Amino acid sequence: MNESLARPMRILIACDTFAPDVNGSAKFSTSLAAGLTKRGHEVHVVASALGRGKQGTHVEEHEGARFTVHRLRSIRYPGHDWLRFAEPWRARNNAASLLDALQPDVVHFQSHIILGRAFSFEAAKRGIRLVGTNHIMFENLMDHSLIPAPLQSGTVTQLWRDAGRIFERCDVVTTPTKRSARFLEQRTGIQRVHAVSCGINADDYTVSDARQRGTVTFVGRVTSEKNIDVLVRAFAKLPKDLAKRLEIVGTGDLIESLGKLAVELGIGDRVNLTGYVTNEELRAILTRSEVFGMPSTAELQSIATMEAMASGLPVVAADAMALPHLVYDNENGYLFTPGDVDDLATKLQRVLESSDAEYERMQRRSLALVSPHDIATTLSTFEAIYRGEDVEDPSTEVTFADSGETEGSTH
Q: Model pTM?
């Protein structure tokens, strides 16, 4: 490789949500910054301050790497229990000051809403290479908005048009899967969106030595767009001797209402809403689970599902958005009709009643299907994108020789 291409880069990552926030975008941004730092690059993250008086530039440690994080004065998003945004009226000035001081080789924004908008304008003005990644579906956000229901459809259309204008400034636009890339192209009108998996380090997860019977697990934000009530209702239909416990792992505004629903359905003593857990606790929960349930219909990838697969779990997921990129029906689990409680219950029961040999086959399939999503491939792809090299989207398709089925043939 040309020496100029191999040299370490100064990379600025701008994100509206970052650790310790718990969501897919924050998790990816954190892993990306840590991974690039470990590869010898100088990484600067720009993110919201965690509260008043906590803004400023600090060296922070995340995922075993130390890098610089610039925390900007922020405000809490109305009606949300933890989400904070950098003050929009200061964002352009902050972006200009940081770009002039740091002079990065590349700017990579993870959301175009606040900081991505500001940094895209200022980076383009200075001729700095600009990469944008989309993790957002505006359709998901309406439940958390103050916009009246009759106006939401038109609002979503306008928001996507606005997103398109910002992404058009980018040299390269990415999103985690082929399906989400097509979705972004259709909504915004931009072309040639690259599909680059968020990636995970599968070695961080442990497959149980013995089948852990009886626990169904969900991991993610406990909010309306995840459709967790569908999973709770489906769990209530399962025989008690098969479905002994439902673990709902994550924080969000629906913890109390889902707890009440579980009590109403007579399963309150078998449903555990954990709230926040550490990474170590999450991995332990996955290892001692038997099956993973993902009822969301709006996943642009689902890091949580990949974590479950890396833990050797069969998955029952909604046949919607990008989940069929991870769950091959009747291979590493099953797809169910979105919103259909009975279908979800049937598919969960099918896994729980499977023979040990069949269960082990699904485990092997999950491990095989998650292997192309290795974080090392993701990091190498973004390094090439940052340097302006032509890249091919990493393939995540897996063919099983004994079934003859591929990603395209199962859906």
A: 0.88
